[in-house]
């Protein structure tokens, strides 16, 4: 980096150690320009939270938390919106948040991505202003929304179709 006149921002630098299943956990740290960088259990890169087990639990938790906040704010202004404008708002903000960088989740079991599916279900109910326990499959069908697992598969397969 010094050769190319680049400087590392040590305030944003994180060390992520991904141990093998049988390896003992180590308290690793490195020293860069006199600053100690300790290992952490997770690190954020371009909005994706990677953890040392690569199970993406923290990423799913952060995405769900962010989407719940967005849905809460949309619900507050929803009485002033039409159904169509609510749908556009939800698709633009919440669905794009669910779809952002979701291809690494393709190898996860359905129970791991369930929190994201619950967010999508809540979003569909919000569009139609229905109560919490309304059946969601007809809503998703009428909105032409694929379930989260299918959206993840689609985003993983789509680049092959475009070639």
From TrEMBL:
UniProt superkingdom: Eukaryota
Q: Which PANTHER family is this protein grouped with?
A: REVERSE TRANSCRIPTASE DOMAIN-CONTAINING PROTEIN
Name-wise, this protein is Reverse transcriptase
Organism annotation: Synaphobranchus kaupii (Kaup's arrowtooth eel)
């Amino acid at each position: 980096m010094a050769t190319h006149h680049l400087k590392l921002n040590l305030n944003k630098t994180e060390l992520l150690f991904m141990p093998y299943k049988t390896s003992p956990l180590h308290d690793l740290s490195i020293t860069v320009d006199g600053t100690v960088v300790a290992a952490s259990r997770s690190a954020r890169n371009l909005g994706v939270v990677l953890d040392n087990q690569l199970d993406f639990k923290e990423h799913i938790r952060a995405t769900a938390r962010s989407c719940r906040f967005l849905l809460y704010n949309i619900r507050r202004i929803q009485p002033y919106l039409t159904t169509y404008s609510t749908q556009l708002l939800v698709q633009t903000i919440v669905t794009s948040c669910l779809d952002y960088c979701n291809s690494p989740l393709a190898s996860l079991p359905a129970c791991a991505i369930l929190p994201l599916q619950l967010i999508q279900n809540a979003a569909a109910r919000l569009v139609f202003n229905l109560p919490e326990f309304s059946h969601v499959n007809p809503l998703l069908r009428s909105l032409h929304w694929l379930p989260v697992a299918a959206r993840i598969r689609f985003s993983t397969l789509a680049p092959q179709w475009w070639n």
